[in-house]
Design a protein that fits this description.
By secondary structure, the protein is an alpha+beta fold. Helices cover 25% and strands 20% of the residues. The chain is built from 3 helices and 5 strands; from the N terminus they run αβββααββ. Strands 1-2-3-5-4 form a 5-stranded antiparallel β-sheet, covered by helices on one side. It binds guanosine-5'-monophosphate. Guanosine-5'-monophosphate binds next to strand 2.
């Protein structure tokens, strides 16, 4: 699947659409989800054109893979989530209901989240 330059997260990365940033470095941008599913719901996206985890894991340079994963952990750390815990979700493709075709990790927390899947 080719990367769509007009996807909503590409526009956020280019600064064309506002976002509520919670963390940013040279590898990643983390911002609040517009439709939160938990008291804390943050999205972390790599600064690069990767459709999904499938694309990123196969094609991203090692420095970006490392930097992105560190940024996910650092975002959670800065949000104070390590003690209580948090959930990471990276929906990938149709079965996972991925809606935005730019890799993103959801960080969910702020209350006990229950079992991993609702059904
Ligand atoms: P997916 O279903 O692809 O894993 O998750 C996409 C997420 O992006 C959803 O949780 C949705 O609420 C969020 N989202 C969609 N459009 C925007 C937007 O314009 N801004 C922000 N901050 N989040 C968005």
């Amino acid at each position: 699947m080719a990367y769509d330059q007009e996807n909503i997260f590409a526009k956020i990365l280019r600064g064309e659409i506002p976002n509520a940033t919670v963390y940013e470095d040279e590898y990643a941008l983390a911002f609040k989800d517009i439709n939160p599913q938990a008291p804390v719901h943050v999205l972390v996206i790599p600064k690069g054109e990767y459709v999904s985890m499938a694309d990123f894991s196969a094609n991203a340079p090692a420095e970006l893979v490392t930097g992105f994963i560190r940024a996910v952990g650092e975002t959670a750390r800065q949000l104070g989530l390590e003690e209580g815990g948090y959930r990471l979700i990276a929906n990938t493709g149709a079965n996972a209901h991925q809606e935005v075709p730019h890799l993103h990790y959801h960080i969910l927390s702020g209350r006990p989240l229950g079992p991993m899947l609702s059904r």
